Amino acid sequence: MAIIKRYRFFLITCTAFLLLWIINQELGRKALLVTGYSLKEMILIIPPIFILLGLLDVWVPRETMMTYMGDHSGIKGVFLAFFIGSAAAGPLYGAFPIAAVFMKKGVKFSNVLIFIGAWSTTKIPMFLFELSSLGARFAVTRLLVDIPGIFLMATFLSKQLSKNEIQSLYAKAETL
Fold first, then answer.
1. Which end of the chain is more exposed for a tag (fewer CB within 10 A), N or C?
2. pTM
3. In which residue ranges of the chain is pLDDT below 70?
């Protein structure tokens, strides 16, 4: 029974695929192809991210991270979090394990949020693509709207969560 409970989401998903296949074979085939593509993408992206995380965890001392991105890092930590997030490549789900390592290393909570916000909206490769495909006016306007939004959301969320809630998140990151 414990194994069924542990893999219930997977079993429910397989059942849904089977039902979809029975009801509409073409749609079931498309759903399976999309799922396969997503799994392939994750298998190609996740291992390099975890290798980089391991290196970050081992090579960069906690004190260094706290100095540059911790509670007393000031504007330097904000810019560093923004730059690391913007320079990143890969899908958004790659940012969360890195954010967890940042939390383990003592990075200020608002800097973690800035990092995630920058990863999701201001990636340099995405900006260059928009510049060439959609034009400078669109790309620069979107960037000028997104950057203040990242800082506003990080500040707002940091103030909305209590110290206990933030400490709980850091404690969960320590167990990863």
1. N
2. 0.79
3. none
With 0-12 / 13-18 / 19 or more C-beta atoms within 10 angstroms meaning exposed / middle / buried, residue 158 is: middle
Residue 93 lies in a domain: yes
Question: DSSP letters along 84-120, please?
Answer: HHHH--S-GGGHHHHHHHHHHTT--HHHHHHHHHHHH
Q: Helix, strand, coil: what percent of the chain each, to 5?
A: 85, 0, 15
> Do 30 and 106 share a domain, yes or no?
no
CA angle centred on 165, ends 163 and 166, rounded to 5°: 65
pLDDT 10s digits, 109-147: 999 999 999 999 998 888 999 999 999 999 999 999 999
**What is the DSSP secondary structure assignment for residue 161, as one 8-state letter?**
S
pLDDT at site 45: 82
> How far apart, in whole angstroms, are the C-alpha atoms of residue 18 and residue 12?
10
152 occurs within a structural domain: yes
Provide φ and ψ at 70, rounded to 5°: -80, -165
Dihedral, 133, 139, 141, 145 alpha carbons, nearest 10: 130
Structural domain boundaries enclosing 1 = 1-45
Q: Please give the pLDDT value at position 91.
A: 85
